[in-house]
């Protein structure tokens, strides 16, 4: 392999695939990035066996030559050093040449780097997926749905299926669900897919979705999603992102979401968010994060928390709408803050069905829905 | 105590003194901030017994009323919560009132906070210093001198005196010295002090100087420095910063700094910095951080490093001046990068007196001087 390539394009592709490099591994080849050059361009691949990312750098773009391939070939280079040194090269052009026993020479300006390369034959082979079950979604929508649900996945490895987000595609609606048994987050978008494409059992690790989010570019693009036997492939412009589905059955959560409420509240997101944040400051000293919400006689609400050592905070909030029975409820303020952080709309609906029943939060003007179980307290 | 105070001024004073609040302490009173109100204004004090900071909020500034003191008095409030809640209050005015058993009520807008206060009589009393040994220095210069030396203090608690920076005032020059026995950093400024004011044994903890730096405002101010028996007091506009001197004798480092060199090098700071940074990427994989510098036949230098597992980096650099014998020397690249980070001038001088002798780095156009001991390597 011998080639000359633009540093910026190489660097961008490296940044993409580096998210799949195994951080701690006993298998040396997995801590590398595979580089393949052929007459179409250069392909980088990294894999920790759960996630695999491939990024293709075409030889030419409409306005310039990106890479000149003098001879094709493959090599695996140590990722950690490779990622950082390419980013820190001063010149715009990088020359790479693989010699005997995968010894790789990288030169750029007056810099000469000799790297111990590894045999590309040892690198894991990416799965070949049947591409008959494919649908598309806007990158922006996908990122929003991930952001609105992924914080609610469980961090408890004892229930691995709950560390993932459930994907459900039915009747032209794509829906995400995440829960750690104390709270639940869902988000949906209309999604045009082939008529016979429907699924309700695809669960993808929350951590993986976080990495996927970082790769989706800021300018809106369409992401093609291939759903295969036990793998999902996300196809972006020049980047392929493979992940395994989580094994297991995701709990049925449809029945725990109340649809009618005894108390209905509409108020400003920012007002509530800042008040909960202040109450949280005191509640976290008690480790429980308990904050109380109660309706007041004056038609507003009061947010309060207390700590035996420090004291008490209470605050009156005006609301936009309040209907139904008075309510007095306690909940984990950290969970509420997590929800409020991902609410983009200025106004939100909160529904209660009693002090011991789930609290439902629905931002006005988006399709997400959040559920928080209250604390059972005596006062 | 009963008062009304502007949140911004209160918040600013809290941020200043909070740097002296004891982080982990078994003495509850030290985790608090003392508030004293009298007819001049409000004074906040925090102390972890090593550092004490006092910030005064005058009742009035030329353009507005900052505080209205309805009745004077004192209380100690739990710092961690107090610092954060004041910062997060939405209204511009804060009312405070101390009741029975130091129970303190803080109200702002529709927010009502009740805090368990502590008895101010239990709070440590600040030392009363003889103010006969005083000199002044510009805050900018002081911050620069701290930045240019403090990174070189030892982190090894076995030699506590080396965790501090030596202050030396003699012949109208103030000089700082820091060393961890592997490297040394010094910085000096001309400084007009009373004729009989001279000292050579004042050692102040590097950590303390770091905190002091954060309090010195960005707009240039004059800092008055009172040097007492075993305490130093820094007087800024409305802020007093007390610290204890470190006990012990700082080693005499004057003789280890060579004054003539066998090889003299002048080159661009940025060029060297970027090259060392790249070589460091590889050297840190070997944990030693060893990077090599050698003069080349073409009148420049070569920077290189190698790792048995990964490979080798080498780079040719053009220099502005090179005089004397050829040199080939190895050093800890992390130490060199630490120096290069605090060099503001575009050009720097490096002097060598042999492969086993100290390397001297002097930025062109400032008064700092840095010394790094080389590694004794065989190749």
Could you walk me through the main structural features you see in this protein, from its secondary elements to its overall organization?
The structure is a homodimer of 379-residue chains. Chain A has 379 residues and is of the alpha+beta class. Chain A folds into three domains: 2-122, DNA Polymerase III, subunit A, domain 2 (DNA Polymerase III, Chain A, domain 2); 134-254, DNA Polymerase III, Chain A, domain 2, CATH 3.10.150.10; 257-372, Box (Proliferating Cell Nuclear Antigen), CATH 3.70.10.10. In chain A, the strands form five sheets. Chain A has a nine-stranded antiparallel beta sheet with strand order 16-13-14-15-28-27-26-20-24. The mean pLDDT of chain A is 94. The first copy, chain A, has helices at residues 7-18, 79-87, 139-149, 206-215, 269-283, 333-342, and strands at 2-6, 32-38, 41-47, 51-58, 60-61, 64-65, 67-71, 73-78, 93-98, 103-108, 111-116, 134-138, 164-170, 173-179, 183-190, 199-205, 222-227, 231-236, 239-244, 263-268, 290-295, 301-307, 311-317, 321-324, 328-332, 347-352, 359-363, 369-372. Chain A is elongated and about 80 Å long. Chain A has six helices and 28 strands.
